[in-house]
Amino acid sequence: MLESVDRIAVVACERFPDDPDNLEVERGLTTAALQAKVDAFDDYLLDVAVLTIDRRARTIGYRASPVVSAPVYLIAERGRVAIDWDYSRLLGDRATDIVWPLALAQIAGVPNYGHETMVAGLYRATAGATLTACPHGVAVDLPGAVEFDGPHDVLPDADIVSEFFDTITALLAARPLDPSRTAVELSGGMDSALAALAAATLTGPGLISVGAEFGGAMGEAQRARRQLLRAHGGFDDLAIPAERFAPFSPASARRRRFGVWPQDENYPEMFEAIFTMLRTAGIDTLVSGYGGDELYTAYEGEDGIVAKGPVTANPFLTREGLAIANAARSIYPRGWLQETCWLSAAGQSQRLLRHGLWPVYPYHNVALARFVSRLPRAWRRDRRLLRASLTRVLGNPVFETDYVKETFDPVARRGIAENRDYLRDLIRRSPLSTHPAIDDRAIMSALDSDVAALPQDTYNALFRVLKVFGFFQSGN
User: Fold this and answer.
1) Which long-range contacts (CB under 8 A, 24 or more apart) does 398-403 make?
2) Would you say 75 and 97 are in contact if contact means Cβ atoms under 8 Å apart?
3) Would you list the DSSP string of 177-232?
4) SS3 breakdown of the chain: % helix, strand, coil, rounded to 5?
5) Nearest Cα to 65, choosing from 90, 46, 85?
6) How many CB atoms lie within 10 A of CB 90?
7) How far is CA 52 from CA 16, 123, 245, in A?
């Protein structure tokens, strides 16, 4: 905590192993000295946030880091400011208005990341930006866009695979991880696999690993990979059957108003069960593979990659609705991390923190993202670097030669089909169904159809629209 005559600044950051446990307080600073100390955190290796109270200007500011593992939400009204990492607690049972362009963008699948949310008056801290509440409203100071400098040549004797794995391990070692209170996510996928193996390199055997397992041939391949990882990392594994946790089921948080943010993961029902088990086992830190997919920057023109244009079709929006959605497309300044990193962290953080868990995302790091972005395309294409790293660590090429990716789609489709009556009633009661840009009859028709046979694009659109309807449902 830093204090001058005019200001108080509270700096909250992920700790290094040798950081003191107690709160450090510096008083009597000049305003310039206070600001210089705050600015020094701009290059902090891990996550950091700064809350500043300016007593003379009568403002409250909140600045998030470029990685923003767990953003806060802010409401300013009637001369008061409320800030909380839990948006549902912040909103409570208050009446809310929908920000229609952002809600329609979410339904359409139009990328959107910014400080404004789908709930009028509710603001979210975003990567590298400062939210400032004053007596007249809320302002945002956005970060400058970073400049990617493209791929570089690699020295002939460079061991890129070792450098990559060693960097991830070092990013985990920079935190005071207690093996008895740390767990690793182990889905059977590549991103979580390498993060978990890096953690085991630091702690040795005995870390708890958690994940959901699927059925069928996909599940058999997933279980085989998990067994390989468990044996190599020496993990004490906890797994749940994914089929038991279909979305929209009676016990799902989706059935509560503001229960699940629409940009959250598609399977919070599974995470609720997993996180409850971790807390029962005394875990307070979870290492995850979030952000691994987004690490492998692709530049326009490489392998025919072109910039994405507007969304041109959605079965549940009118032509006017789709135009409104496309107009709301995000223009957030480009960062070393991709927007989906920030969105996934924001969605998942609520559930983690409600269970007393802190997320550790080793792939969410500016230095690591910058390093990978400069590699030749051969290392970034099809995540070759990640696959080669897993082969090197495991001594088994399964992730390069025989990788069957798991998908939640069959479980989600069944969840929709099994809960049709609830979902039909949800649509009928919802304030969204009266909006002229939303075709609720088309939604009802999709619910009445064979959900398992819906084309992939139609199913994806249906799942998105149902998540938004569930979030804004009436009552509790």
Assistant:
1) 398/224, 398/225, 398/228, 399/190, 399/193, 399/225, 402/221, 403/190, 403/221, 403/225
2) no
3) --GGGEEEE--SSHHHHHHHHHHHHHH-TT-EEEEEE--HHHHHHHHHHHHHHHHH
4) 45, 15, 40
5) 46
6) 18
7) 23, 17, 42
Answer whether 242's CB lies under 8 Å from 214's CB: yes
Strand order of the β-sheet with 182-185 is 236-241, 208-213, 182-185, 285-287, 358-360
Average pLDDT in the chain:
93
Pairing mode, strands 137-141 and 26-29: unpaired
User: How many other CB atoms are found less than 10 A from the CB of residue 112?
Assistant: 22
Flag whether pLDDT at 193 surpasses 70. Answer: yes
Which band of pLDDT confidence, cut at 50, 70 and 90, is reported for residue 197?
Answer: very high
| Residue 184 and residue 283 in contact, taking contact as beta carbons nearer than 8 Å | no
SS3 at position 267: coil
Per DSSP, the three-state class of 418 is: helix
- Give buried/exposed letters for 258-276 (b at 16+ CB in 10 A, else e): bbbbbbbebbbbbbbbbbe
Amino acid at 133: A
Quote the percentage of the chain above a pLDDT of 90.
81
Does the predicted TM-score (pTM) go above 0.90?
A: yes
Per-residue model confidence as pLDDT tens digits over 39-73: 999 989 999 999 999 999 999 999 999 999 999 99
29: which DSSP letter?
E
Rounded to a whole number of angstroms, the distance between the first and last alpha carbons of the chain is 38
**Residue 475 confidence (pLDDT):** 62
Tokens 């929709």 found at: 416
How are beta strands 59-64 and 130-134 bridged, if at all? Answer: antiparallel
Residue found by looking up tokens 């290392």 in the block? 379
Judged on CB neighbours under 10 Å (0-12, 13-18, 19+), 317 is: buried
- The pLDDT tens digits of the residues spanning 106-117 come to 999 998 899 999
Q: Residue 131: phi, psi to the nearest 5?
A: -90, 135
Q: What's the maximum distance between 2 C-alpha atoms anywhere in the chain?
A: 68
For the domain made up of 160-409, give the CATH fold: Rossmann fold (3.40.50)
The amino acid sitting at 209 is: S
To 5 degrees, how large is the angle CA 467–CA 471–CA 476?
Answer: 135
Q: Where are the domains of the chain?
A: 2-141, 160-409
